[in-house]
Structures are given as C-alpha cells and as structure tokens.
C-alpha cells in the first residue's frame, strides 16, 4: 500500500523515520515531502496512486482527491477538517480521520494566557518597562470571581472551562449540545445572546461549519458588557472581523485572538491590524513541542488502525 505525507509535520527526521517504519516494516511504501505546496497540479503529482494521504493544516482540494484513483483514507494531523474537501471525499467514498485531542491542553492554556494578558495588560506593561517607563495607569483586573462564557463545549472548551474554574471563575456557556461533563464543572447552559450579555470573559471554542460561520456578529458583540473580553482560539470566521474591530476601536471591549480568516502574515488592510485593546498571536494555539509530537503519533496510529480494519478518530 502506498502512503504519502503531503507536507511536513514539524517533527524531527529521527521521529519521522521511527513512525514511518511502522508502515515500511509491514511492506508498505511511504513517501514524505519536506515542503508545503498549495499548487494543485503539484499536489496531484505528489498524491498520485496513493491509497492513504497524510496532511496537516494546509488545504486538500477536491481536484487532488478526485485525481487520486486509489485514495481510500485521509489522515489529518489537525482537529478541524474544514480545509479538506469533504464533499469530494464523500463522492469517492474516501474516509477521513483526524487527531482530535492532541492539542486540548495547548489551546486551552493559550486561551488562559490571552485572557490574563488582557486582564493584567502584560504586553503593555512589558512595552512600558522596555521603554524605560513605569506602570503609569496599567493597573489590571483579577481573573478570580469573573463570569466566563464558554462558546462550544467540546474537548477544548471543556479543558478551558476546567482551568477557568481552578482560577475561581463562574462558568456559563452555549453549545449545540449540552455535555454532562460541562454541567459537572458547574457550567450553566443558556442561549448565546445571554452568554454574550452576562459574561465578563467569553472564550470561543466552536469548530468552523456553515452553522458557526459568523456565529458571533455585530448583535452578539453589541450585547457584551462594557470592558468585557472575548478570546478566540477556534477559527477566525466564527467571529465577524469587522464587527470585532469596530468594538475594539470604540474601546468598549478587549480581545485576544489567535485565529483569522487566513493565517498571518495578514494583509496590510486587515481590520484588526493596529486595533487597540487587542492581543494577537499568529495561530500558535495548537503549536507546542509536546502537541506536535503527539499529533504525529496519532496520525500514523490512524493509518495503522485503519489497515487493521478499525478506523479510529473517524470524521467521515
């Protein structure tokens, strides 16, 4: 069987050799590419005749999926699969497995970090010290006792909620389905508008789907308390960028953002560039040394398990 790694996984050669040996030792063919391409023709060439494609977070277009006549499985080294043409996979009967769970701690910890930065003005305090200044009016706020709204109570949302609870926060939330584990943490579910209006801090953890694109728009942002904070470590399009930028420039709210419509570098005219009351990171929520090694293990485990007749972490 031919397996192709279409892009780098961010792991060492030694680790990749060890993982690929789990396939080649069984007589399978493994080919790994050490560069990213978004050129469709080049991707078709790379994928030619492969039964299994391994990708990370770069797009896998329908043209590539349809051109590979032997394709049976796409193993995605990422939680979301919105960068894969799912309809093309359905059309061809191609299965998809992801690596859900590999970065739960990583993303949750960044969400907390962005929150603390917004509350305690850490970035601004550093800039003041580096410029030879004192604290001025950079007094912040405590996290303890705040009401935190969790939007999306999947694995990452639940992990984030648990950390907020450890800080002594009250938990409220909104999700398409209510989770027993969330209620066990003391999280109270309520309609989205109520969460937006009642929370001091809102942390967004929904996947990007047709239903969640623009979930938080101008009306939801307008409902937020004066001085409230919104954190987005999920997907950029879940929040309407223009509405967020406007509220930030008006000084009504603060935000911590790790995700955008496309990964940075952002275009010079992007609405969030230069916006006040904002802390940004360049989509690094998932990206820790530990999580990257973990997802590599999982993406190869997906392939081995499927070959043995048991598809794990099934998305399609």
From TrEMBL:
<dbReference type="InterPro" id="IPR050223">
    <property type="entry name" value="D-isomer_2-hydroxyacid_DH"/>
</dbReference>
<protein>
    <submittedName>
        <fullName>Hydroxyacid dehydrogenase</fullName>
    </submittedName>
</protein>
<dbReference type="InterPro" id="IPR006140">
    <property type="entry name" value="D-isomer_DH_NAD-bd"/>
</dbReference>
<dbReference type="InterPro" id="IPR029753">
    <property type="entry name" value="D-isomer_DH_CS"/>
</dbReference>
<dbReference type="InterPro" id="IPR029752">
    <property type="entry name" value="D-isomer_DH_CS1"/>
</dbReference>
<dbReference type="GO" id="GO:0051287">
    <property type="term" value="F:NAD binding"/>
</dbReference>
<dbReference type="Pfam" id="PF02826">
    <property type="entry name" value="2-Hacid_dh_C"/>
</dbReference>
<keyword id="KW-0520">NAD</keyword>
<feature type="domain" description="D-isomer specific 2-hydroxyacid dehydrogenase catalytic">
    <location>
        <begin position="16"/>
        <end position="313"/>
    </location>
</feature>
<dbReference type="GO" id="GO:0005829">
    <property type="term" value="C:cytosol"/>
</dbReference>
<dbReference type="Pfam" id="PF00389">
    <property type="entry name" value="2-Hacid_dh"/>
</dbReference>
<feature type="domain" description="D-isomer specific 2-hydroxyacid dehydrogenase NAD-binding">
    <location>
        <begin position="112"/>
        <end position="285"/>
    </location>
</feature>
<dbReference type="InterPro" id="IPR036291">
    <property type="entry name" value="NAD(P)-bd_dom_sf"/>
</dbReference>
<keyword id="KW-0560">Oxidoreductase</keyword>
<comment type="similarity">
    <text>Belongs to the D-isomer specific 2-hydroxyacid dehydrogenase family.</text>
</comment>
<dbReference type="GO" id="GO:0016618">
    <property type="term" value="F:hydroxypyruvate reductase [NAD(P)H] activity"/>
</dbReference>
<dbReference type="InterPro" id="IPR006139">
    <property type="entry name" value="D-isomer_2_OHA_DH_cat_dom"/>
</dbReference>
<dbReference type="GO" id="GO:0030267">
    <property type="term" value="F:glyoxylate reductase (NADPH) activity"/>
</dbReference>
